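From the shared-data thread, chain only:
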Amino acid sequence: MAKGRGEPVHGWLALDKPVGLTSTKALAIARRLLNANKAGHAGTLDPLASGVLPLAFGEATKTVPYLVEARKTYRFTVQWGTETTTDDAEGSVVGESALRPSHDDILRALPAFVGEIMQTPPAFSAVKVDGERAYDLAREGEAVVLEPRLARIHRVEVLELPDPAHAIFEMTCGKGTYVRAFARDLGRALGCLGHVQALTRLAVGPFSLDGAISLERLEESAKSGAAKRLLMPLATALDDIPALAVTDQEAASLRLGQAILARGRVSLREEADEGEGGSPTAPPVFCRSRSGDPIAITAFERGELRPTRVFNFSTRG
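Structure, as C-alpha cells:
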C-alpha cells in the first residue's frame, strides 16, 4: 500500500491496465494523476496481462481485503506445444510436444479442472518461500519448489480454437487461482504441453472491463481537472457483505472504536449464527449513516457489532 505526498482522495478506480506495465507501476501513474496521498491495488496482474485492475485510494484502501476475496473472470489464449519457465510467453521453453489437442480432447479434460482443485502455483509467482518471493528466487536461478494449494474454478469454457496450436478460454475463479498454472496443468493432462500466450481480466467482483478506465482517459481527465469524477464510492467493493444503517449516536461510538448492540437486528443475528456466534466465519457488516456515509466495517460477536475498520475522511489526509 503506497502512502506519501498528495491530497486525501477517497474511492475506487477500475483501471484497464495495458500490456507491458506492472500493476505497481500502473498504480503509481494513477496515483500521480489523481494526486492521491494513499493508494493500493486489489489483485495483481502480470506485465503481459491486460484488463481490470481495481485501484483503491485513501480510505478505500481499507476495503481492499474484501475485494481480494471476490471472484475474477479472465479471457486467455493458451498456446499448445511448449511449456515455459514462467508458464507464459515471457519464459524460456523447457518442454516441447508435436501433439495438438482437438476440441473434444479439451472438453473431455476440462471437468477435472472445475470446482475445488489442488493447484501448484507457478515458480514465477508472488508466493513466499522462507520469507522470499518465489519469483525473486526463480530469477536468481534457484530451484523453487512450491506446495500444491486449494484453488476454486467456478467455470471454464472453450470459446474458440483459432488454429491447431491455440485455444481461447474464459474462466471465473476464486482467490489464489493461477491461470498460468491452469494452462500448464491442462497442457500436461492433454499430453501436448502449453502456456498462456495472452490474458485479459474481464472482471473483479463488481468491477468489469466495460466500466474500466484507460490510462489515456485518466490522463486526459487529469489535465482538465476532472479525474476525481471517475472515482467510484468506497462502498463499491463491499457489495457482497451485509449493510446496516446506524444512528448518529451509534456512528459516533463506532468511530471511537466502541461496539454497538446488534439486538433486534434479526437478519444480522441469523447470518452470524451460521458462523457460530463470534467465530471468524461470522460475516462482516458494513455500517453506514442514514445518509449513506461509510462509518465502519464491523464483526458480529456476542450480540454486538465490533468495529474492525473505521473510516476517517479527514481533509488533512
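The chain has three domains: 2-70+206-236, 73-202, 241-310.
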